[in-house]
Design goal:
binds S-adenosylmethionine; 11 helices; 275 residues
């Protein structure tokens, strides 16, 4: 067991993954009960369409990275059926999820030819995971990273996001990029609607942070936001529908980069490949 696993929280909420796959009828990780709950949600909310949009984004994200000839992919909160290695074949993949059962389930399906490593660690544990040498091995010593996190960071605290993304900025080579989707609101975080959304997700046992989209850039500093945050449906060119457009609560997509001419942080790793 790697030392980074010692900090693994037992506080994971399996429904954050199972409702997603149940509503998409994808994979074999969810139960009949999840299918029933997701059906119930689909009667009340635009949940199915949002999840279809999210899945389409994940595919587009990997394909876009592949077009840009990235080779090393870090996927945070990769879930029970990661597909990066199918959408960007030929790359090296480090999948991370904090739920060990999800990791065990997904590992069984990975083949050697996928060049994929799947580790149980929370987003907040990524620095420890990297210090353990896992990333060095998974990426064969390369540090130019394509970082992915699709529909995950709304379940992660500000502190863990900040620490991990600032660590990754120092670790990664200039030219590295981050693509993210996460829930956000355009209203104030203490507005009635935002509170209602928080209570609803707590009630279905998938508690989430409902943040104002104006706070996103600061969470990922010093990465530079180069696109977004914009609603994910807009990002991928999904036709607006009455349920998805203009309601102020959405899953937002963004891209951040460590610019090719970025200077190293004094006293921190340069992000260059060690010689
Ligand atoms: C909605 S699913 C998305 C899965 C995958 N990214 C996809 O697009 O199919 C959210 C995933 O985030 C994981 N997750 C939630 N909080 C996490 C944390 N703090 N650290 C790592 N993974 C986390 C859950 O276990 C779950 O697999």
């Amino acid at each position: 067991m790697g030392s980074y696993e010692s900090a693994l929280t037992k506080n994971y909420h399996p429904k954050t993954a199972t409702l997603y796959s149940a509503v998409l009828e994808d994979g074999d990780y969810h139960s009949k009960k999840d299918r029933f709950t997701s059906f119930f949600l689909s009667l009340l909310t635009p949940f199915p369409e949002k999840m279809q949009i999210n899945r389409a984004f994940a595919q587009e994200m990997y394909k876009q990275y592949a077009r840009e000839q990235f080779e090393n992919y870090l996927d945070l909160g990769a879930g029970p059926m990661p597909r990066g290695h199918e959408w960007a074949p030929g790359g090296r993949f480090l999948y991370v999820d904090h739920n060990p059962q999800i990791v065990e389930h997904a590992r069984k399906k990975l083949r050697e030819a996928d060049h994929a490593t799947y580790e149980a660690a929370s987003v907040g544990d990524v620095p420890k995971l990297f210090e353990s040498g896992v990333a060095q091995r998974a990426f064969d010593g390369e540090r130019k990273l394509a970082i992915c996190s699709n529909a995950v960071l709304m379940f992660v605290s500000d502190e863990h996001i900040r620490n991990t993304f600032s660590y990754l900025y120092d670790w990664a080579a200039p030219g590295s990029a981050v693509m993210i989707t996460m829930t956000g609101v355009t209203s104030k975080e203490n507005a009635l609607g935002a509170g209602f959304i928080r209570s609803f997700f707590k009630w279905i046992d998938a508690p989430m942070y409902v943040r104002n989209i104006g706070t996103f850039q600061s969470l990922f500093a010093p990465w530079t936001m180069v696109r977004g945050p914009i609603p994910t449906w807009q990002w991928i060119g999904w036709p607006p529908s009455r349920q998805t457009a203009g309601v102020g609560f959405d899953i937002y997509a963004m891209r951040l980069e460590k610019k090719a001419d970025a200077r190293p942080t004094p006293g921190k790793p340069t992000g260059e490949r060690p010689r």
